[in-house]
């Protein structure tokens, strides 16, 4: 009897091990499907938003297109799934999306549920208010109603800090999505609309009928890391997503752009640059990718500075400053992992 039990346990253990070994990896699923499934917002200008033809654009969109460029050699092999705050983490856990690239703050409780890969933006809270209210400081918020999306850590933390630090009280009006909260504000339901700073700037620039009627109040209460996330348990996919994003930062640090990458690939004598751009062999082998994968990210999507400029910065309607999201030499905290 004892021998039979031991045999049964051994067989069960072997079957579990075989099941784990034979489980299809995320990369295999993505390859078989033919595109990367990207979790996006429900439509935030500058970050992730479809145009009238259904083509998605934005900073978070480009962060996921970089993964497609690295993996497939084609940045267009990415499809976007709009998610609200409550849907985003479950969508990663269930594998509905391969990459969550949607204004999500990296927190401890979320990181034990999914796996955060890289911080792609550092942002803070902001409130859009009508200029007629003359809000100049946090104390002026007392008694106002604020529209916001439920389930977001950044704005909740910021409002808590504002109230506690300034002895004020605001009325919070929750909505299922940031779009509903925004529309309620523009419709007069609330005195203010609160979200991430870049999101607020995008909504004012692209959606407000007259942007000059609205002011943006930044309390400075929070500074939070917005990050890319993937399902847990797949180290290869983690590395692919992490280093696809890192390729954009590395390229900016090296002065390599989508416009000059061919020239640099042809002329550089630097060993790291030559290998990273696929001139010398070997950069693709650890990730089982083509040696041109970094080149493809830069050529098709651009370096981090290019992506920021066209979606959020000087080449966009938002005209946002980079602040933390710049290289250290430019006063920021963004830095690349060397490709050595």
Automatic annotation (TrEMBL):
<protein>
    <submittedName>
        <fullName>General L-amino acid transport system substrate-binding protein</fullName>
    </submittedName>
</protein>
<dbReference type="InterPro" id="IPR051455">
    <property type="entry name" value="Bact_solute-bind_prot3"/>
</dbReference>
<feature type="domain" description="Solute-binding protein family 3/N-terminal">
    <location>
        <begin position="35"/>
        <end position="264"/>
    </location>
</feature>
<comment type="similarity">
    <text>Belongs to the bacterial solute-binding protein 3 family.</text>
</comment>
<dbReference type="InterPro" id="IPR001638">
    <property type="entry name" value="Solute-binding_3/MltF_N"/>
</dbReference>
<feature type="signal peptide">
    <location>
        <begin position="1"/>
        <end position="23"/>
    </location>
</feature>
<dbReference type="Pfam" id="PF00497">
    <property type="entry name" value="SBP_bac_3"/>
</dbReference>
<keyword id="KW-0813">Transport</keyword>
<keyword id="KW-0732">Signal</keyword>
<dbReference type="GO" id="GO:0006865">
    <property type="term" value="P:amino acid transport"/>
</dbReference>
């Amino acid at each position: 009897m004892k021998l039979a039990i031991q045999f049964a346990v051994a067989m069960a253990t072997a079957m579990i091990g075989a099941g784990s070994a034979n489980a299809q990896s995320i990369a295999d699923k993505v390859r078989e499907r033919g595109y990367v499934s990207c979790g996006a917002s429900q439509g935030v200008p500058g970050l992730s938003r479809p145009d009238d033809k259904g083509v998605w654009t934005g900073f978070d969109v480009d962060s996921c297109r970089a993964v497609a460029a690295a993996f497939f050699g084609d940045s267009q092999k990415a499809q976007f799934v709009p998610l609200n705050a409550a849907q985003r983490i479950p969508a990663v856990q269930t594998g509905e999306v391969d990459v969550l690239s949607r204004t999500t703050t990296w927190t401890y409780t979320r990181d034990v549920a999914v796996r955060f890969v890289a911080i792609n933006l550092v942002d803070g809270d902001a409130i859009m208010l009508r200029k007629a209210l003359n809000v100049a400081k946090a104390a002026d918020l007392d008694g106002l109603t604020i529209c916001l999306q439920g389930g977001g850590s950044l704005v909740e933390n910021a409002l808590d800090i504002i109230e506690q630090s300034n002895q004020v009280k605001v009325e919070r009006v929750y909505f299922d999505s940031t779009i509903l909260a925004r529309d309620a504000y523009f419709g007069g339901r609330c005195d203010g609309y609160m979200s991430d700073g870049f999101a607020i700037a995008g909504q004012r620039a692209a959606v407000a009928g007259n942007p000059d009627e609205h002011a943006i109040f930044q309390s400075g209460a929070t500074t939070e890391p917005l990050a890319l996330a993937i399902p847990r348990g797949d180290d290869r996919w983690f590395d692919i997503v992490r280093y696809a994003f890192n390729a954009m930062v590395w390229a900016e640090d090296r002065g390599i752009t989508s416009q000059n990458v061919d020239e640099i690939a042809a002329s550089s004598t630097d060993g790291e640059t030559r290998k990273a751009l696929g001139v010398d062999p070997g950069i693709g082998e650890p990730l089982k990718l083509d040696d041109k994968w970094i080149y493809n990210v830069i050529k098709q999507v651009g370096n981090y500075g290019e992506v920021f400029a066209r979606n959020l910065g000087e080449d966009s309607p938002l005209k946002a400053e980079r602040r933390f999201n710049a290289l250290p030499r430019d006063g920021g905290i963004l830095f690349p992992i060397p490709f050595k």
